């Protein structure tokens, strides 16, 4: 028996070293939004999800399942999401020796929005569903129909397309089916003789255009192009939900990608900040103590917050100018360190950053106003549109407050304002849900 166990152990060791020998390490370079980069050594079989997990750990980020790896092709001004299951080395293998292509690590809150709100991707006037559903589908029915290999809703509508080698864009009636993308050469006819095949997505990648109007002369800034994986030829289109095209082809795989992190959370022994096992503590005395009375928790938290603000104010008052009020210095101390504050960011840059991180409800950032140096601007996404709200300073009895509604609701600092609108919609079209953050690798 001992000899048998010894043989099994040796076999296991041999297998381990054999696999380790076969695993070739390679160096990849990854960029962040501020164009800082970091080179890391990784196994040749590493996936996009593995890369994201690696940088989440290295940068001490909170893993909210929205971190994403992007493939960007600068000379064509296009990029695409590298799906979690994809091999990063296979992506790089298609670049060529002197390619300018690069990898970007950043948030994409819309990454799996399709599985969270599928009804948003199927406007009634653009969808033809099977007769079995009687034209009515709820959330779960839509997901099941989508994941089925035998059926899928058909999407149709008008798109602007640019034919290869031409500069002008023309409007055509397009039809998206599981078998591929088609356009009609006769009005809105769906007859087979009038439908012309454009692309099949089983062997293609879908890229979004980064500067559709500027680079491609497109009629809108929302465009995509389809690239056959083994080919360098591009067919550019605009005004279409490119994320649905990816989902249409790799539906079940993407669904598995979507549910995988949640399954890991259930089986993982690691603690989460959302667990009820966390307890309230009071550190105001000589010794720390656990707060057992629930009614005392809120008052202690408020007092700690006020104490922190007073300390920030005191620290900065010695470095600030004599004419600067304590309240304004306290405000500066608080908001400049917040991940949602982006200081001197222009309106266009704010829109670009929000667009990059996902056009879903509640994505936001706060920035300095370019037109008025004393005010700030809240940039917020709602219904796939980016809106800008001016945060106006209000002075009363020598104290400075900030308000979004002409002084009706006032806050002592921007942190308090953001925290309020994260819990209450107020005058905003939706609550603040996801902040745009920039990290340096």
UniProtKB/TrEMBL annotation:
InterPro entries: BPS-dom, GRB/APBB1IP, PH-like_dom_sf, PH_APBB1IP, PH_domain, RA_dom, SH2, SH2_dom_sf. Residues 26-110 form the Ras-associating domain. One of its GO terms (biological process) is negative regulation of insulin receptor signaling pathway. Its main location: cytoplasm. GO terms for cellular component: cytoplasm; plasma membrane. Gene3D superfamilies: Phosphatidylinositol 3-kinase Catalytic Subunit, Chain A, domain 1, Pleckstrin-homology domain (PH domain)/Phosphotyrosine-binding domain (PTB), SH2 domain. PROSITE patterns: RA, SH2. CDD domains: PH_APBB1IP (cd01259). Keywords: Cytoplasm, Phosphoprotein, SH2 domain, Signal. It is found in: Cytoplasm. Residues 340-436 form the SH2 domain. Residues 1-32 form the signal peptide. Belongs to the GRB7/10/14 family. This is Growth factor receptor bound protein 14.
């Amino acid at each position: 028996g001992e000899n048998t166990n010894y043989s099994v152990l040796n076999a296991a060791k041999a297998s381990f070293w054999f696999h380790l020998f076969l695993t070739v390490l390679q160096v990849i370079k990854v960029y962040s939004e501020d164009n800082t980069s970091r080179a890391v050594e990784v196994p040749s079989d590493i996936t996009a999800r593995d890369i994201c997990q690696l940088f989440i750990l290295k940068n001490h980020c909170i893993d909210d399942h929205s971190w994403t790896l992007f493939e960007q092709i600068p000379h064509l001004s296009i990029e695409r999401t590298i799906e979690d299951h994809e091999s990063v080395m296979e992506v790089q293998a298609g670049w060529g020796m002197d390619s300018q292509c690069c990898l970007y690590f950043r948030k994409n809150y819309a990454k799996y929005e399709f599985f969270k709100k599928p009804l948003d991707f199927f406007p009634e006037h653009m969808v033809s569903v099977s007769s079995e559903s009687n034209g009515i589908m709820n959330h779960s029915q839509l997901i099941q129909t989508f994941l089925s290999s035998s059926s899928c809703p058909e999407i149709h509508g008008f798109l602007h397309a640019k034919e290869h080698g031409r500069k002008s864009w023309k409007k055509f009636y397009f039809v998206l089916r599981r078998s591929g993308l088609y356009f009609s050469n006769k009005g809105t006819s769906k007859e087979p003789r009038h439908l012309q095949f454009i692309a099949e997505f089983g062997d293609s990648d879908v890229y979004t255009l980064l500067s559709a109007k500027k680079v491609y002369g497109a009629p809108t800034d929302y465009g995509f192009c389809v690239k056959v994986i083994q080919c360098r030829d591009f067919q550019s289109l605009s005004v279409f939900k490119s994320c649905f095209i990816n989902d249409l082809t790799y539906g079940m795989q993407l669904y598995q990608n979507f549910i995988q992190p949640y399954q890991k959370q259930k089986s993982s022994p690691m603690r989460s900040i959302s667990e009820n096992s966390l307890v309230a503590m009071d550190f105001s005395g000589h010794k720390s103590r656990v707060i057992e009375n629930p009614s005392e928790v809120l008052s202690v938290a408020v007092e700690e917050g006020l104490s922190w603000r007073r300390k920030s104010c005191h620290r900065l008052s010695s470095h600030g100018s004599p004419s600067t009020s304590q309240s304004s210095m306290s405000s500066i101390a608080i908001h400049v360190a917040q991940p949602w504050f982006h200081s001197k960011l222009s309106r266009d840059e704010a829109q670009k950053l929000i667009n990059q991180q996902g056009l879903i409800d509640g994505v936001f950032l706060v920035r300095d106003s370019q037109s008025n140096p004393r005010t700030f601007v809240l940039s917020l996404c709602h219904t796939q549109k980016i809106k800008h709200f001016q945060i106006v300073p209000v002075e009363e009895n020598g104290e400075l407050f900030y308000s979004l509604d002409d002084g009706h609701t006032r806050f002592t600092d921007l942190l308090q304002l953001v925290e309020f609108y994260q819990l209450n919609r107020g005058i905003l079209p939706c609550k603040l849900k996801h902040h745009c953050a920039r990290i340096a690798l």
